[in-house]
Amino acid sequence: MAPNNPIYQEAFSKYKDKIIDGRLISGKIESGLYGRVLGLKKKGIIPSVSVILVEGDKASSIYVRNKELSAQRCDILSQKYSYPATVTERELLNKIDELNNDTLVHGILVQVPLPAHISEKNIMNAISPLKDVDGFHPLNAGKIFTGDSPFYPCTPYGIIKMLEFYDITVKGKNCAIIGQSNIVGKPLSIMLMNRLATVMSLNIFTENIKGFTRKADILISAAGKPGLVDGSFIKKGCVVIDVGISRVGGKIRGDADFEGIIDKVSKITPVPGGVGPVTVSILMENTIKAAELLK
Ligand code: NAD
C-alpha cells in the first residue's frame, strides 16, 4: 500500500509498470518468515534482535523505529538500548559483550553513524560473527567473496532480492554502482560479480562518471546526493535502483531525479518505498537465520 506521500502515490499510479515496489517485496519477505518463526517457537526459541542506538542522529532514530515495527510484524522480539551522544566506546563495547554472551539474544546491531569519538570499526569487530545480523563483521564481510557469508549486509542483499523478484537478470549485464561504502557499494559489487555481472564501481573521484553509467543496464546509486542521477546518466531502458536517502525541505529524496529519468528507464525504485523497506525485512530474515543457526 502506498504511504500518504504525494511523490510516492503519483509514482505508483502514473508509472505503475515501471515501479519496483519495495513495500510489496518487503511484505512478501516478511510473510515468508512466519513459518520459520513458528518453527523456532515450537522449539521454545523466540527469535530476538538487540539494537543499540546512540541518540543524536534523527534519521537513525527513524530507521530503528522502522526495524522495531518490522520485528513486531514478524513476531520477533526486539530490544532497543539507547545511549546519549556522550556515551564512551568502552560503554558500548561492554554492552556488546553482554549481548554476545546472552543466549536469548540472536542478533545484535549497532545503528550507524556513530559519534566521531567512537570507532565504528572497533564496534563492528566486537559483535559476535554469529550474531552479526547486519553482516558488517570482517569475518562475514570477507565471506561475501566466496559467497558463503551467513549474513549478507541487508541493503545489498535486499537489492539482489528486488532484482530477482522482478526477474531482472544480472548475469552478463553491465552494472554501474555509484558509491563504494562498506555497507552498500562494496559488498554489492562483489555480490553482483558472484552472479556474473560486469561491475563498474564508481566514486566521487571517478572521472567522466557518465561515461560509465551510460553503459549500464542496471544503475545502482548509493551516493546520498539528491537528484544526482539525471537523464544524462542513463542509457535508455536501464534499470535504476536508488539507494540514496536525503532530506530536502522536509521530504525524503533519493539520488535519482525521478521525474527527469522515468521516461528513459525500464524499471526504477521509488524513494521512499523502494530499497528502504526491503533492507529492514532482510534484517528480520537475518535475525531468524541467526536464531536457527544458534539453536
Ligand atoms: P557513504 O555516505 O559512506 O559514501 C558515499 C559514497 O558515494 C562514496 O563512495 C562516495 O565517493 C560516493 N559519492 C558521493 N557523491 C558522489 C558523486 N557525486 N559521484 C560519485 N560518487 C559519489 O555511503 P552509504 O553509507 O552507502 O550511503 C549512501 C546513501 O545511501 C545515503 O543517502 C544513505 O542514507 C543511503 N542508504 C540507504 C539505505 C537504505 O536502506 N535505503 C541503506 C544504507 C544507506
Q: What would you say this structure looks like, in words?
A:
Helices cover 43% and strands 15% of the residues. With 295 residues, the protein is α/β, with parallel strands linked by helices. It has a five-stranded parallel β-sheet. Strands 2-1-3 form a three-stranded parallel β-sheet, with helices on both faces. It has a two-stranded antiparallel ribbon with strand order 8-9. Nicotinamide-adenine-dinucleotide binds at residues 155, 178-181, 183-185, 202-204, 206, 209, 222-225, 228, 243-246, 275-276, 279.
The CA-CA distance between the termini, in Å, is 36 Å
Alpha-carbon Rg, integer: 19 Å
- Low-pLDDT runs of 5+ residues are none
The residue-averaged pLDDT reads 95
Give the name of the CATH architecture of the largest domain. 3-Layer(aba) Sandwich
- Helix amount, in percent? 40-55%
Could you outline the blueprint of secondary structure elements for this entry?
Elements: H1 6-14, H2 22-42, E1 48-54, H3 58-74, E2 77-83, H4 89-100, E3 107-110, H5 120-126, H6 138-146, H7 154-165, E4 174-178, H8 185-194, E5 198-202, H9 209-213, E6 218-221, E7 239-242, E8 246-248, E9 251-253, H10 258-261, E10 267-268, H11 275-294
Parallel strand pairs: 1-2, 1-3, 4-5, 4-6, 6-7, 7-10
Antiparallel strand pairs: 8-9
Helix pairs in contact: 2-11, 3-11, 6-8, 7-8, 7-11
The chain binds nicotinamide-adenine-dinucleotide.
